[in-house]
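Weekly structure sync, notes
Attendees: PL, DS, HV (note-taker this week)

Item 1: MOSC domain-containing protein
DS walked through the input record. Source organism listed as Rhynocoris fuscipes. Sequence as pasted into the shared doc:
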Amino acid sequence: MEIQQKNVVIATTAAMVILTAFGLIMLRRRNKKIKSSTVVDGNTDKLKTLVLEDMKPPTEWKQVGQISGLRIYPLKSGRQVNLTKADTTEFGLKEICRKGTLPLRDRVFVVYREENKKFVSGRDYSKMLKITVNSMGNDSVEFSFDKERIIVKVPQDGEQDNIDMRKENIRTIDCGDELSSWISKILLGKNEGLRVGYWPDVRRDVSQVYKDQLEVYKNMSNEFTGAYSDLSSFLIVNQSSVDDLNTKIGDVKNYVTVDNFRANIIVSGAPPYAEDEWKWIKIGDKAVFKPYKPCTRYRQFTDKDQRRLEGESPVMGLYIGLYTKGLIKLGDPVFVGSS
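Item 1 (cont.): predicted structure, written out as tokens:
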């Protein structure tokens, strides 16, 4: 019992150190009021999101770094797949693989409760972080957890569920009873209770459920949503910002890595927190992205008085949407511009 209590104290102390470091970073950052470019339809009171045609990328670019990491997470909250190169699609990164092999894509599988259709994540079941998805031929994938493995055919049609993912109701194609039983055993220890869904290539509509954010983040758009990602089709993180965070943490035992933030694209060579000012991003020769919102998933305080004292939610990384497609790879130069 004493050992268990000691472990809890150590874990709690480590978490507090990391959260305190986030708070210090946020004291450095200034809140900026952003004018809204969304429009309210007088007939429907529906916010119209900014479309790509309304955006004008810059004509001049300045190199700020290079790509040091490319990752996808085929299963939402599952283990990452490291890539050396990738196609950029409007819904996120896609693996480039040999002919006859199904290319993996980012966050196209999701786990949800059979009873109420609510999605679950690594916050609910930490074992999910160790579940790997690999391509097996031109129409199948393998799910694995330690020594437990199962190969399933990726559904292209079939029974669909409407799952509850935070504020959104999103369509998914059920992957069948066999995979449902497998993942229920892994996460729940029983033969039922959870289902696995596959994304049916539908465009999400954020114009209603994220109306409050659309009023603040002027470049947020339906065109920038991913499959089952939290909000954006791409998350980019600056390695130097993570390194600087570790200097605030101090104790090497509590250091974090870019893996903690589950980004798709990692940039090296830029100054810490330079990404706060990036208006446009170009990677390699062709791929162009539009940043539109800081990633604020890593929250420190929930009490309003604490927030007033310590500042707003800490951020790490940028949500970005694709403006121009292009192949990107490790070592590619990263440019920024403004317009």
